Amino acid sequence: MRLRSIPIVVTLALGLLLAPLAAHAQPAGKVYRIGYLGNVRPPPPVWEAFLRGLREFGWVEGQNIVIERRNAEGRFERLPDLAADLVGLRVDIIVASGSPAPLAAKRATNTIPIVMMNAGDPVGSGLVTSLGRPGGNVTGLSLLAPALVGKQLELLKEIVPEVKRAAVLTNPGYPARAIMLTEADGAARQLGLQLQVLDARGPGEFEAAFSAMTRERAGGLLILVDPMFFGERKRLADLAARSRLPAVSGLREFADAGILMAYGASLSDLFRRAATYVDKILKGRKPADLPVEQPTKFELVINLKTAKALGLTIPQSMFIRADEVIR
What we know:
Layout: H1 2-24, E1 32-38, H2 44-56, E2 65-71, H3 79-88, E3 93-96, H4 100-108, E4 114-119, E5 138-142, H5 145-159, E6 165-170, H6 177-191, E7 194-199, H7 206-215, E8 220-223, H8 227-231, H9 233-242, E9 247-249, H10 252-257, E10 261-265, H11 267-282, E11 298-303, H12 304-309, H13 316-321, E12 324-326
Parallel strand pairs: 1-2, 1-3, 3-4, 4-5, 6-7, 6-8, 8-9, 9-10, 11-12
Antiparallel strand pairs: 10-11
Helix pairs in contact: 2-11, 3-4, 5-6
């Protein structure tokens, strides 16, 4: 009797030990369908960060998840149809980057969970009721773009202390535009800067905007975070170089493309953290119960090649603070 009881005891003990692991495991045999809705195609390192985040929770594309990718490629008028397409496929969850994409997804469904990966102003744009209590079927991550505009102008003034007039390139169609301009105006008054606000609704209006900057003798340029600008960042960097304008923006990818400097949240980190929401929702949590999170990783990236081309000397204090210097 004693010998027979040993396997039973061992079995019970193993069952108790493995029970917590089983509670966090993915449902056996089910393959989930994830829909991705993007304003523009994300850079490969940013997309890989999302896939890596999923793998950290055991979600592997081609094994227990399928990802349906839909990108507007900068043509935001396509977003409603792309969102409807994902809804028609009956995806289990939609992850959406930027602000226009999750807004299109929210208009397309009020039942499928939506994870925003980097929304500019989630509350102001109507994506969620509040950060702490999102309500509805949308949650995710905020880019915190408006709050960082003042710091971007401050850094521009630090590199180009003689600047008196700064151009601000905006897209009137971006949901967070108004609040970002309010932040820029407040920072400009403190820094003694005069702002020249220029709108560009599409790439076809870039040339006119830069011509106006030249006419008004702007000494620097702030490119507000916007999905359309992000997709056209290389062209904007080329126009800034041609106009000999020191430019700053809110995502490191702009500095990679050739503008002088970028300061803001890490897009790769936000995409990686979006996988946490996907994991929780696929395991049964409701978006309404998951608070919206803010960025925790910020990057200051300086393009030294651009600085040299503009004849600028970067203060040593900025080199010390920079997360990366592109040489």
